[in-house]
Amino acid sequence: MSKEVSELNDRSFKEYIIDYDAEEPVYKIQRDSIIEFYMSTCPHCMNMAPVYVEASEEFPDVNFYRIDINKYPEVAEVYNVQGTPTFIMLPLKGDAYQAVGEMTLNDFTNILKETF
User: Fold this and answer.
1) What's the confidence (pLDDT) of residue 87?
2) Domain boundaries, the chain
3) Which of 99, 33, 90 is nearest to 108 (CA)?
4) Is residue 84 among the annotated active site residues?
């Protein structure tokens, strides 16, 4: 059974990740999380889609989200996303980490193991 990767929009991003419209940004995450910033027309993003889903199954204690930056460019600005796919890892303890580009499942899960 496949673990769900939640698709975000600008409203749910503010509800589950960070309310960036507040005077002081307020983080909303309740557990370790990762966000994939992607474009539906990006071939590298399309190649990463099954890798991302498979990785979500290997890390059941991490919330996996994704958001289409063509539809919600203002959300991409929150993390200064310059290219796709971009992955922002948000551990509850420690610093946020950013990884960019298409990766193998092994390389991607190694980054997740180091972060979470």
Assistant:
1) 98
2) 6-115
3) 99
4) no
